[in-house]
């Protein structure tokens, strides 16, 4: 998404309140206060996200990037939902931009808000996201929220394309799958080396090259909404005995430390479509740091000629801190990255 920020719209002084969580190792900095949500126009959380991006992209840069964040920081903004049936609205941001849906972030938001007493731990909490409404079921103990199960948006296999391999002269098959975001899914067996032995930097470079190559070849249009889209995430996966494993690369080279909620759904949908996972089967997905989500396909549907799955994922988040972030009027640095292509 291209965002034009009017620099003179950035106030000299500002204060923001966040609660920070990690879900299976991946951070979510949740903005609770500091942006007047009545200025976020639009008749959906997606439109409110776009309104935020047009007016407050500097807030994303301030909170996600250095010196308050870092290149792999991830965040969420809690807003009023538009959907009458939803309990809250949430959209997602990172050091580079915005994603339509995020599983680890939704688990973080629901866990934190319930533990802070800002959301009642009803059996089902309906969360409106830019990709649609997802249902969250927090599992509570005396100590707080132990885990959250999300019933995610419908997922489908979009297309299979072949691109040049980023690391050899061979060609590389890529499955493009929608699960709230469009993914490029690649079997690590088709690349040089395994996830364990290949340096993370190389996997990140390949992930970005693969995403670029797929976006060059495909004009993606979501068949369920008619919206034009881009592949935003690459997932390089390998199979294991008791869990499948993957590395998930997005943004300007961010690596998800969690097994990626939407990525777990994309992988399950691909396995279902190729007959390797059945409705109801338990699926275990492991991240690049060894943390896990459990998943399941609970339903399949046919909509407008598209075969879709309804996946669920379960994971745990913990609060890591509560912050009051300041923008001091003497501070000329409002959020920078050493590696971001736009500075
Ligand atoms: O959990 O869906 C997810 C996600 C997307 C990007 C980072 N995490």
Which overall shape is indicated by the principal axes computed on the Cα atoms? globular
Helix/strand/pairing category: alpha+beta
Rg, Cα atoms, Å = 19 Å
**Total count of domains:** 2
Which blocks of ≥5 consecutive residues have pLDDT under 50?
A: 1-7
Fraction in helix: 10-25%
Could you spell the SSE succession in H and E letters? EEHEEEHEEEEEEHEEEEEHEEEE
CATH architecture heading of the largest domain: Roll
Q: Which CATH class of the largest domain?
A: Alpha Beta
Task: List the SSEs and their pairings.
Layout: E1 14-23, E2 26-33, H1 45-64, E3 74-79, E4 88-94, E5 98-99, H2 103-115, E6 125-129, E7 132-141, E8 144-151, E9 156-164, E10 171-178, E11 182-187, H3 200-217, E12 220-221, E13 228-229, E14 231-238, E15 244-250, E16 254-255, H4 261-273, E17 283-286, E18 292-303, E19 306-315, E20 317-327
Parallel strand pairs: 2-3, 4-6, 11-14, 15-17
Antiparallel strand pairs: 1-2, 1-20, 3-4, 4-5, 6-7, 7-8, 8-19, 9-10, 10-11, 12-13, 14-15, 15-16, 17-18, 18-19
Bound molecules: pyrrole-2-carboxylate.
Describe, in plain words, how this protein is organized in 3D.
GO terms for molecular function: catalytic activity. InterPro entries: Pro_racemase_fam. The chain has 2 domains: 9-151 and 319-327, Diaminopimelate Epimerase, Chain A, domain 1 (Roll); 156-314, Diaminopimelate Epimerase, Chain A, domain 1. The protein is 19% helix and 40% strand. It contains 4 helices and 20 strands. It has helices spanning 45-64, 103-115, 200-217, 261-273; strands at 14-23, 26-33, 74-79, 88-94, 98-99, 125-129, 132-141, 144-151, 156-164, 171-178, 182-187, 220-221, 228-229, 231-238, 244-250, 254-255, 283-286, 292-303, 306-315, 317-327. A hairpin with a 3-residue loop joins strand 4 and strand 5. It binds pyrrole-2-carboxylate (PYC). Pyrrole-2-carboxylate is lined by residues 26, 74, 99, 102-104, 250, 256, 258, 260-262. Pyrrole-2-carboxylate binds next to helix 2 and helix 4.
């Amino acid at each position: 998404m291209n965002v034009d920020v009017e620099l003179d719209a950035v106030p000299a002084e500002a204060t923001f309140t966040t609660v920070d969580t990690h879900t299976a190792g991946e951070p979510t900095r949740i903005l609770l206060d500091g942006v007047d949500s009545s200025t976020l126009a639009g008749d959906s959380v997606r439109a409110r996200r776009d309104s935020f991006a047009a007016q407050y992209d500097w807030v994303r840069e301030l909170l996600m990037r250095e010196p308050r964040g870092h290149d792999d920081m991830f965040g969420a903004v809690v807003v009023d939902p538009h959907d009458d049936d939803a309990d809250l609205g949430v959209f997602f941001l990172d050091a580079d931009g915005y994603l339509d849906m995020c599983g680890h972030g939704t688990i973080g938001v629901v866990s934190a808000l319930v533990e802070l007493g800002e959301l009642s731990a009803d059996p089902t909490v309906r969360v409106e996201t830019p990709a649609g409404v997802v249902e969250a079921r927090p599992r509570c103990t005396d100590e707080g929220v132990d885990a959250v199960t999300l019933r995610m948006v419908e997922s489908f296999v979009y297309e299979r394309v072949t691109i040049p391999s980023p690391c050899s002269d061979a060609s590389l098959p890529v499955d493009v799958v929608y699960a709230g975001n469009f993914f490029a899914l690649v079997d690590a067996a088709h690349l040089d080396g395994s996830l364990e032995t290949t340096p993370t930097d190389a996997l990140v470079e390949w992930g970005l090259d693969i995403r670029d190559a797929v976006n060059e070849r495909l004009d993606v249009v979501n068949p369920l909404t008619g919206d034009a889209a881009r592949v935003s995430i690459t997932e390089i996966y390998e199979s294991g005995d008791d869990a499948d494993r993957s590395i998930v690369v997005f943004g300007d080279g961010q690596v998800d430390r969690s097994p990626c909620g939407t990525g777990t759904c994309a992988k399950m949908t691909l396995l279902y479509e190729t007959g390797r996972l059945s409705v109801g089967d338990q699926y275990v997905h492991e991240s690049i740091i060894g943390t896990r989500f459990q998943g399941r396909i609970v339903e399949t549907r046919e909509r407008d000629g598209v075969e879709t799955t309804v996946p669920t994922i379960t994971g745990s988040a913990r609060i890591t801190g509560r912050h009051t972030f300041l923008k001091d009027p003497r501070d000329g640095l409002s959020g920078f990255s050493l590696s971001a292509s736009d500075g």
